[in-house]
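It is worth pausing here to work through a concrete case rather than discussing structure prediction in the abstract. The textbook approach is simple: state the sequence, then state the predicted structure, then interpret. We follow exactly that order.
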Amino acid sequence: MARSKGFQGIVGRKKATTWGTAVVPAAGDGIEVLSIVPSGGTGAIEDNQITGRVTQREANAGLRNLTVVYRTGLRYEGNGRDIALLMGTAGVPATVDTSGRKHTFKIKDDVDGIFATLAYESIKDTKVEELTSVKFNSLKLSGKAGERIELEVNGIVRDWTDASGSNTTTSIDSVTLPSNREFALFHQAVLLMNAQSGGSLSGSDAVYISGFEINIERNLEARFSTGGGDKCDEPIPNGFAKVSGSIEFPALQDGTGGNAAFLAEQMALTRKKATLTITSPNLAGAATEYFQHKLWLPNLQFGEAKVGIPGPGGPTWSVPFMAWHVTAVPTGFTAGYLDALTWDNSNQDTADALA
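Step two, the predicted structure:
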């Protein structure tokens, strides 16, 4: 019996068109992961009939409730599909500075028909596992000082198999990675923030943070019907999509060298606007366009701050926030960037992430 000595294969994920029907990831569909964890299984329908004994007879198989989560280092090129499958809007990227391409991911109200097949080789040349249909329901972008920035993606799964007729040890060998494998690093990030009704963001609006987290959540519910049997139908919305997160900082630049003004604004639920820009030192275009991720947050309100235990370097603050959509684009924001979050990604990938 073959024994796995640790996860060895590349994960392939490819947008599918029919819920419950697998597609086969191939060239350009690969992603390197830190971990991938499918979980769940078939529920048991207990037999509560009285039989004259104190123990029960065997149960019937119930519904399959399956999920998956995977973690990966954020790269400037190659994560567009992970972002787009959750956000819902991608499109052919705009050409910028000759060879540079700018992908714009927006939150779509309706994500019907947007899902993927995931396949990965859990035992090299021996075992391929397939998640036939996966609909993403949350994404977390996070970074801490001195580390790589990471993505964590969660999805609702229709079915799992390790005996697929589509994704096999032969087909998985055709999966390739993007050519650019440059990681996005925390020290490359810049957070700018000022009043929601204030002027354009500039360098003087920098907030010096030691960590951040941004969560995008689709409130999706797995529905079951006789059409799907014991497997879920395509999940549907069951409430608002939400954008939230937190920032951590040892001190905040507020013009006076202290945190008092910012904390007072928190208690008043003062509205802010912000951009988080993560920029590579390498050009994606011919002259001025760098590899980059830029997240636009037009309307933020902060919650209750938590203070870490003071040490030789002083206290560290952790501040949660919620992000909202707006009806008018804030000063300095790109036209049409009204959603709670819009995500730009500049690289050299010419393909629509949802193609």
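Step three, interpretation. The first strand starts at residue 11 and ends at 15. The chain has a mean pLDDT of 91.
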